[in-house]
Amino acid sequence: MVEKLLIKDVMSKPVTIAKSAVITEALDKMLDLGVDPLVVTNNGGVAGTISRKAIADILGSKKTSGISPTQIHVANKLDVDFTSAYPDQDAEILIPLLQEYKVVVVLDEEHKLVGKVDAIDLLSSMIPDATAENIMQTPHTIHPGDRVVHLRRKMLDDNITKFVVIDEDDGNIAGVVTETDVAKSMRSFRETVGGNHQEHQVRNLFVSEIMTSPALTVDINTGIEEIKDLIVKKRISSVPVIRNGKLAGIITKEALLVAL
After folding, report:
1. Residue 248 and residue 188: Cα distance in Å, rounded?
2. For residue 115, which of 32, 251, 43, 12 has the smallest C-alpha distance?
3. Which of the 8 DSSP states describes residue 82?
4. CATH class of 7-125
5. What is the pLDDT of residues 27-54, one digit of tens each?
6. pLDDT tens, 88-140?
7. Partners of 116 in the β-ladder
């Protein structure tokens, strides 16, 4: 008989940030520990979460262009819509929850924070039943020479968090660009360019300057467990799939969760 997997078997130590902290501290913690989102606490309780996407959005907004990133607090971009569970519940309930929320907060009987489960935690303990070809999705693509303002508009308008960057000359993969790259670049841009010059200079910032390159990729024939292990080990949100040397699709954490 297979022993039932419980939430306490898959949860990990919660990575928290105070509601009063600044977003640069939150971003540094996310990048250092490979976590997204962070659990936000206030007066000993859970107040919500904050994600890399939220930080990218606020740092790329014209409304905050005159404010230093070190002066913007977590409270300004706090997501209060979160979900919770208890350690002794069946881990299977996490699958649909993590398709809607980026993280499940784990509370004890006294409603104190004792853990968290995100997609990486769950995928570390479960293996999807699928093939790469069955679960890969059509990727969103962009070119290295496209402007970052154009990238951000597509991200905001279409709720896209990741793009595969395709070289216009040969059609090969030049890199990937995600909300993490945008958050990092907007922070650096804000810290080095004065407020009066930001609107003009940001229009001369190109995808090639902020993308992650080279991109990690997998072949269409790679086993799903190997792909899952790569995403877990590297703590990345997705990986492009290659067929005969060209982009065929993309496999995301979300697709792996659906296949569990």
Report:
1. 33
2. 12
3. -
4. alpha beta
5. 999 999 999 999 999 998 999 999 999 9
6. 999 999 999 999 999 999 999 999 999 999 999 999 999 999 999 999 999 99
7. 12, 105
pLDDT for 54-90, tens place per residue?
999 998 888 887 788 899 999 999 999 999 999 999 9
Domain residue extents for the chain: 7-125, 132-258
CB 97 within 8 A of CB 85: yes
Distances (CA, A) of 120 to 17, 74, 82: 19, 23, 17
Phi/psi at 15 (5° precision) = -100, 115
The topology (CATH level 3) of 132-258 is: CBS-domain (3.10.580)
Domains 7-125 and 132-258 are alike in CATH topology: yes
Q: What is the Cα–Cα distance from 50 to 39, expressed in whole angstroms? A: 7
